[in-house]
Amino acid sequence: MEIRKATTDDLPDIMDVIDLARTIMRETGNATQWANGYPSVETIQDDIAQGCGFICATDAIVGYFFFRHGAHPEPTYTHIEGRWLNDEPYGVIHRLASGRKAKGIAQAAFDFAFSLVENVRVDTHADNLPMQNFLVKNGFSYCGVIYVNDGTPRDAFQKRQ
After folding, report:
1. Per-residue pLDDT tens over the stretch 90-109
2. Fewest CB within a 10 Å sphere: which of 87, 91, 104, 109?
3. Computed from CA positions of residues 38, 97, 112, 49, in that sequence, does the dihedral angle turn out positive or negative?
4. What pLDDT shows up at residue 64?
5. What is the pTM of this model?
6. Domain range list for the chain
7. What DSSP character marks residue 16?
8. Whole-angstrom Cα distance, residue 101 to residue 103?
């Protein structure tokens, strides 16, 4: 599986993957995450403009995620009800989306992240059990609850390799 930076030419395929991921969320009992059109085309365009939008591809685009690391801490991670594992620089993954076209998208995204940084933080909705199960299975520690920009809670996880 290839991982590369997304371009605006990829937008239609990325949005198709996001729509499929939203459908899968609903089917697995996650009725409220990614509601009201989130993530929008504008959100993904902003990801791409920042150089933080990535696609996973086989013969076609099968996954999408936002990844950032370095000197830009995640603003919503400043306050946590709980405790992060450490205060070292970290990478963050958001908007991880896959459809039914390929397996291993989450693993590929996190492998990519860990190839660039040793410390990764991520958050997910309390109803997103498939993602929580993936994180725990792959050695992430539950750290507590953070609140995203709209004020809703998310379960926060971190792993240091």
Report:
1. 999 999 999 888 899 999 99
2. 87
3. negative
4. 98
5. 0.93
6. 2-160
7. H
8. 7
